[in-house]
């Protein structure tokens, strides 16, 4: 029974991490790049407004940061639950 609880805790933490990462990515790419673009139009970044920057480059940079964060956090989670790779 303890093994089942540990497996459930591991997968629960894994799914929670995935959902948080997806929400951040959706907020940055869809929210800042499309929905909130008119509100960000007055802020200039590199000669373009901030909403355009998020749509063209910002969401990609945030996605790359999320990939590295996810890999780092999953390695830590794997070590905590004893399923790390050698």
Automatic annotation (TrEMBL):
All copies of domain Sodium symporter small subunit, residue ranges: 8-84
Keywords noted in UniProt: Membrane, Transmembrane, Transmembrane helix
Pfam family, one: DUF4212
The organism's place on the tree of life at top rank: Bacteria
Signal peptide residues on this chain, from the entry's feature table: none
Stored InterPro entries: Na_symporter_ssu
Annotated TM spans: 17-40, 52-72
Coiled coil: none
NCBIfam families hit by this protein: Na_symport_sm
Protein name per Swiss-Prot or TrEMBL: DUF4212 domain-containing protein
Organism: Salibaculum griseiflavum
């Amino acid at each position: 029974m303890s093994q089942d609880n540990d497996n459930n805790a591991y997968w629960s933490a894994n799914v929670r991490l995935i959902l948080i990462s997806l929400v951040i990515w959706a907020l940055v790419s869809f929210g800042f790049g499309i929905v909130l673009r008119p509100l960000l139009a007055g802020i200039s970044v590199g000669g373009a407004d901030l909403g355009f920057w998020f749509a063209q480059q910002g969401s990609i940079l945030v996605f790359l940061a999320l990939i590295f964060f996810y890999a780092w956090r999953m390695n830590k989670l794997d070590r905590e639950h004893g399923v790390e790779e050698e």
